[in-house]
């Protein structure tokens, strides 16, 4: 009878040790799960902020706000401050603004690259193609590139955007292949058999793209970035 309490104490100690081991094994799964859920939640918020930044920047850009002016680009930096958008080289966000136009006959004629006798292009290299007429970038331009590519500024087919405004002259975006944009299936105004649908001649597209560095949790979440674009 005197040994019974000692045996009970030994059983409780043995049971307590086993519970600690079980808790440690469960923690190996639960702790990364909780951390991952937290990082995923933060990245979801950053994604929504990225979507809003692209939308706001695109609305202002399409309505004629000149972001090449110092006062206006300050507004853009303020809009993206929660994502780390700034004019510093190591900023954690980037905004890319592109103005595009579809090169039709009127564009070729205005640039003097149309043969009125044969009614055919004459040096109008980009006839029936979408081209950049302006490109502006803000923030860390090395963290992500545009889904449309960018104006080629080197080589014999390159263009020379204005260093301040980012604008490309009409003659260059009509005749230089370096101005052609690559839409990669995001263009709602498709070119089918040489016919452009849905967009009147002379109209332009305004594209705003935004990206921000996502939160990282190695090895579960690597070097990812949120991304959004708005077309106006």
Describe the secondary-structure layout.
Blueprint: H1 4-62, H2 70-79, E1 93-102, H3 105-110, E2 114-115, E3 120-121, E4 130-139, H4 170-175, E5 191-192, E6 195-196, E7 204-213, E8 225-231
Antiparallel strand pairs: 1-4, 1-7, 2-3, 5-6, 7-8
Features:
single chain, 232 residues, alpha+beta, four-stranded antiparallel beta sheet, two-stranded antiparallel sheet, 4 helices, 19% strand, elongated
How would you summarize this macromolecular structure in one to three sentences?
The chain has 232 residues and is α+β, with helices and mostly antiparallel strands. It contains 4 helices and 8 strands.
Give your account of this protein's structure:
There is one protein chain. It contains 4 helices and 8 strands, in the order ααβαβββαββββ. It has 232 residues and is of the alpha+beta class. The chain has one domain (44-231). The strands form 3 sheets. A 4-stranded antiparallel sheet has the order 4-1-7-8. A hairpin with a 4-residue loop joins strand 2 and strand 3. The mean pLDDT is 82.
Distance between the termini: 88 Å
Q: Which word captures the global form? A: elongated
Strand order of the largest sheet: 4-1-7-8
Low-pLDDT runs: none
Decide which structural class fits the backbone. alpha+beta
Counted beta strands? 8
Largest sheet: 4 strands, antiparallel
Fraction in helix = 25-40%
Q: What is Rg?
A: 28 Å
Tally of domains: 1
Mean pLDDT: 82
- H/E element string? HHEHEEEHEEEE
Number of helices: 4
